[in-house]
Amino acid sequence: MFRDRTNLYLSFRQSYTHHPYLSSQAAPLIEGDAIELDMLQPGWMDVTSQVESQLQAITSLIGQLAPLHKKHALPGFDDRSAEEREIEQLTLQITKGLHRCQALVKKFESLSRQLDQNDQALVKMYDNMKVAMAAKVQDTSSMFRSMQSSYLKVLRKDPKFASTGSVEQDVQLSRQALEQTQDLLQDEQDVEIRQREQEINKIAQGILEVADIFKDLQTMVIDQGSLVDRIDFNVETMYQSVKDADRELVKGERYQKRTTKCKIILLLSLIIIGLFIILIFRPRRHSVQAEPSQPVQPAPAQPAQPAQPAQPAQPAQPAQPAQPAQPAQPAQPAPAQPAQPAQPAQPAEP
């Protein structure tokens, strides 16, 4: 028996009191009108933006330094210590900016180490970004180095600036910039060398795989060649066998025709021999040999006798009673006598 508890359940549900703290606890932590935070940018984008901002700042500083170099290279008798200090500050700022760019470029290596090495596409992207940023830094440092070298050449030509300390500082800064450029070039060359080594290893592996494939193909070609030779030999043998079989069939057909004819001839010969034997051993009938006809000799004429007187008639005898008929005896077949050959008729005597 089943009990109906529906009414009891409805009464308990209606009498249940809702607590406000439970509803507040069940409420979601994020309201419906809340704004989700954007996803953070990957590390390489941050580093790239920093490198580009530094390069823009360095380019602007180089643009400010170029007219100062030209102005300072012009001959004059005024006090140019302020210009020299400004040139030194700009050169120092540019050198520090290049150092920061170099450090940011090296930061790509640490970021690439943190990646999953199994994801080759992402690792290669980081390497490409590093090479691209290093190339941009190298171009900027090359431009700054060429400007510094041309400025040094101008100062060396002027004996008035030969013993100044600013020239030595510029030379030192130029050396530092050159060293930084060489470091960047070395890093870039190392990256390229590693990439080339990886490519060479891949090419070597591909060559080994191709060599293995060619070995397999060579083995297959040799096997196929032997199979083709066997097939050719089998085809030639089958062709010769078919020719021999055709020849044998022609001979067999000819022999079969001849055999039929020979059988017919033999059968006829046997029939003839059998008939001949039957004729030889057939029983002959005994026939009465016909006697030779004797020549009829003429009888001598007798003289006529006188007629005798007639005798008186005798009285008739009484009739005898009829005898009972005897049963007919079966006719005995007369044995067939072989026919005697007829004697040749003798000539009649005269």
TrEMBL record:
The keyword Heme does not apply. The chain crosses the membrane at residues 264-281. Keywords: Coiled coil, Golgi apparatus, Membrane, Protein transport, Transmembrane, Transmembrane helix, Transport. One of its GO terms (molecular function) is SNARE binding. Residues 304-329, 339-350 have a biased composition (Low complexity). Residues 290-350 are annotated as: Disordered. Residues 190-252 form the T-SNARE coiled-coil homology domain. It is found in: Golgi apparatus membrane. SUPFAM superfamilies: t-snare proteins. It is a single-pass type IV membrane protein. CDD domains: SNARE_syntaxin16. GO terms for cellular component: Golgi membrane; SNARE complex. GO terms for biological process: intracellular protein transport; vesicle docking; vesicle fusion. InterPro entries: SNARE, Syntaxin, Syntaxin/epimorphin_CS, T_SNARE_dom. The keyword Membrane applies. Belongs to the syntaxin family. This is t-SNARE affecting a late Golgi compartment protein 2.
